[in-house]
Amino acid sequence: MVRLLSVLVFGLFLEAVGVVLLSQGLKEQGELQRFAFDELLRFVQRALTNRHLLAGVALEAGFFGCLLFLMSHGDVSFVWPLTSLGFVLTTFAARFILHEPVSPLRWFGVFLIVLGAGTIIYTEKLREKEKATAPQMTLPARS
């Protein structure tokens, strides 16, 4: 479980930083003035040269790679709920890197996510403990 949690934490940091970079890059892009093919083409060309957007996409791809590893080595009912901790890290990144205001009610929501993730981890530890203490069935030796 320690290995899975280590990969998860690494992946969640990739995701949080990636989301911050995507946000910065999209704000640098500005909005489409009109929805026309030539305007859309210019927007895409600017996006393909925006270092924040490109770095954000690369980090999100790294997170997806971590997620693939996690899903192939752990139970979905354990791994997937823990990815919600990405919202926690992203909220901290938004507050302290992007300097976005975060209301007390929103911080309470973040606390609830942490509480839920803690519950998931606790249940996994209980499950591992039950497996360790369960009597092992052995087949009688053949003569």
Provide a short characterization of the protein structure.
The chain has 143 residues and is mostly helical. Helices cover 78% and strands 0% of the residues. The protein has one domain.
Structure report:
The protein has 143 residues and is mainly alpha-helical. It has one domain. The chain is built from 6 helices and no strands. The chain has helices spanning 2-29, 37-47, 51-73, 76-82, 85-96, 104-133. α1 (2-29) packs antiparallel against α3 (51-73), α1 (2-29) packs across α5 (85-96) and α5 (85-96) runs antiparallel to α6 (104-133). The two termini are 40 Å apart. The mean pLDDT is 90.
What is Rg? 21 Å
Helical residue percent band: over 70%
Gross morphology = elongated
H/E element order: HHHHHH
Largest sheet: none
Which stretches are poorly predicted, pLDDT < 50 over at least 5 residues? none
